Amino acid sequence: MDKCPTQTWSWIKCGFQFFHTVIPSGADHLEGDDLRPSHFIDSVDIVPVMSVPFVIEEDRMRATAISGIFLLLAWAALAQTPKRTASGVPSGKAVLKTYVSAWNRHDFAACDKILAPDAVHEDIALGVYAQGIAQIKDFMRKVIQGQPDLEWRVSRFVESGPVVVAEWTWTSTFTGDSPTGPVKNLRVSGRGVSVVLTENGQIKHLTDYYDLPSFFRKPPMDAAKGNK
C-alpha cells in the first residue's frame, strides 16, 4: 500500500476510518467496554428494544455504502495515475500518451516534465528536427497555429524496454501550405507511426513517420460527389 498515490491512499483511509468511526466493531473494544445498544443510539429510551438490532444493521449498511463510495473514489484516482514500472518510473507507453495529451490540450508547460532536456522530436515528412525542449515547444506552437483543433489519437502500442512504437491517427482543420499549395480551413486526416525512446520516465527521442500527401487526399465518396 505504500506505493499507492497519495490521493488514492487518502481515499482508502477515509473509507475505513469512516466505517470504524460510525459503526465500531467488537474488535475495537476492550474487555469491560459498554457494548449495550445505548452505546450506538442516543435516545434509547424512545426506541423499542426489538428495533435496536435493525437500527444498528441499518447504520452498518449506510456506513458500508458510504465507505464503498470512498473506495470508488480511490479507484478513480488510481486509474488516472500513469502506470509505472517496478522501479517507480512511468512506462514508455504512459509517457507517450501523456505527451500526446499535451499536444491535444495545447499544454506547453507539460513538456517541461515529459521531455528530457536534450530530447528530440523528429518529423520525417515535414523535415523537422527539433532538439531541446525550447525547439520542440516552438515546433508544437507552429503546428497548433495552423491546426488549432488537432486531434492526435494513439491506437496501438508495441513496447520493449525503453522503446515504444505506436500507431496513431491525426485529424484537424488545416490552414497553411499543403503539398498542392496554400489552403484554408481544410479538413485533413491521416495515419502514422511514432518510434519513441524513453529514459528515466521522459522522452529522449521521438520520430514520426507518415505520408504527408495522403492527409490531403479527398475520401472516395467526396471525390465522387465532386465529379458529378
Notes on the structure:
The chain has 228 residues and is of the alpha+beta class. It folds into 2 domains: 6-79, no CATH class; 92-227, Nuclear Transport Factor 2, Chain: A, CATH 3.10.450. Helix content is 37%, strand content 29%. Strands 2-1-6-5-4-3 form a 6-stranded mixed sheet. A hairpin with a 2-residue loop joins strand 3 and strand 4 (163-178). Helix 1 (6-22) runs antiparallel to helix 2 (52-79). The protein starts with 5 loop residues before the first helix and ends with a helix.
Gist of the model:
The chain has six helices and six strands; from the N terminus they run ααααββαββββα. It is α+β, with helices and mostly antiparallel strands and 228 residues long.
Could you give a short account of the major beta sheet?
A: 6 strands, mixed
| CATH domain fold name of the largest domain | Nuclear Transport Factor 2, Chain: A
**Extended strand count:** 6
Q: What number is the mean pLDDT?
A: 77
The amount of helix comes to 25-40%
Query: What's the arrangement of strands in the largest beta sheet?
Result: 2-1-6-5-4-3
Radius of gyration: 28 Å
What would the principal axes of the Cα set say about the shape? globular
Task: Count helical runs.
Answer: 6
Structural class: alpha+beta
The CATH level-2 architecture of the largest domain is identified as Roll
Give the total of domains.
2
